[in-house]
Design a protein that fits this description.
Blueprint (H helix, E strand, L loop, with lengths): L5 E2 L6 E2 L2 H11 L10 E2 L7 E2 L2 H12 L13 H10 L1
Antiparallel strand pairs: 1-2, 3-4
The structure holds zinc ion (2 copies).
Protein name: D-ribitol-5-phosphate cytidylyltransferase
Keywords: Metal-binding, Nucleotidyltransferase, Transferase, Zinc, Zinc-finger
GO molecular function: nucleotidyltransferase activity; zinc ion binding
């Protein structure tokens, strides 16, 4: 298996993006991906986090958004959009 690939736990398929794996799991195996926590990335990339710190890191690394506030909370993509416009 090449590095950086995410294997499907239900079959032998691998994906380079978790997002695509999650979509595959839902459509092919009819299962929801296991959630790490209940904090969702507001950018609909299917990632979940157990702490705001992790979400913050993820937003910085993947989406290039830097949160000033350590515990900035986003209930959904709309609240994120509001924050985005403000900054
Ligand atoms: Zn599969
Ligand atoms: Zn994300």
């Amino acid at each position: 298996m090449a590095e950086g690939l995410v294997p499907c736990p239900h079959c032998s398929k691998t994906y380079t993006m978790k997002k695509n794996l999650y979509q595959h799991m839902r459509t092919v195996h009819n299962v929801s991906p296991q959630l790490k926590g209940n904090i969702r990335c507001p950018l609909q990339c299917e990632e979940n986090f157990s702490s705001h710190k992790e979400l913050r890191k993820h937003l910085e690394n993947l989406h290039k958004y830097v949160l000033e506030n350590e515990i900035q909370e986003f209930e959904n993509s709309e609240t994120f959009d509001v924050w985005k416009k403000k900054s």
